[in-house]
Design a protein that fits this description.
This is Transposase. The structure is a single chain. The chain has about 40 residues and is mostly helical. The chain has one domain (about 5-35). It has one helix at about 15-35. It is elongated and about 50 Å long.
Length: about 40
């Protein structure tokens, strides 16, 4: 729900829209990398 802003084009400039996409992908990937991995038995 953090990236609802990307569902529609609210930005006036393409550079700010691109920055929002990069920011949301950065947040997504850091959350995925920070998740604890399941232990193998």
């Amino acid at each position: 729900m953090r990236t609802r802003r990307l569902a529609r084009d609210y930005e006036r400039r393409t550079t700010s829209a691109e920055a929002m996409v990069c920011w949301s992908m950065t947040l997504l990937m850091t959350c995925r990398l920070a998740r604890p991995r399941p232990s193998r038995a």
